[in-house]
Amino acid sequence: MRKLSLLADGEPVELHEIDQDEVQQIYDLYRIAYSVQSRKATNRYYKGMTVKFTGRGMLMEGTIERVNTKSVTIRTEAGQRWRVSPIFILD
Description:
This protein is α+β, with helices and mostly antiparallel strands. It has a single domain (12-91), classed as SH3 type barrels (Roll). The chain is built from one helix and seven strands; from the N terminus they run ββαβββββ. The protein has one helix spanning 20-42; strands at 5-8, 11-14, 50-55, 58-67, 72-76, 81-84, 89-90. The strands form two sheets. A five-stranded antiparallel sheet has the order 6-5-4-3-7, with no helix packed on it. A two-stranded antiparallel sheet has the order 1-2. A hairpin with a 4-residue loop joins strand 4 (58-67) and strand 5. The longest helix has 23 residues, at 20-42. The model has no long low-confidence stretch (mean pLDDT 84).
């Protein structure tokens, strides 16, 4: 198994050596980074745009009805409504 390590002040730190506060800091940074990526992805889409995504193992196509901060509401040709994370919309 590969050893994972972090850099603190330019020096590697082994993951098994970090305390709970450092784990919380890592988690908070991950949440912020994910949120930024999600918002960037959301900004690429607009109401009325036709997009494709995978739903229930099938490739689906629909029209965007609403763009939220973390999700996009899509209506398919069959009339189904899907709430999809913009990260999962295919370009």
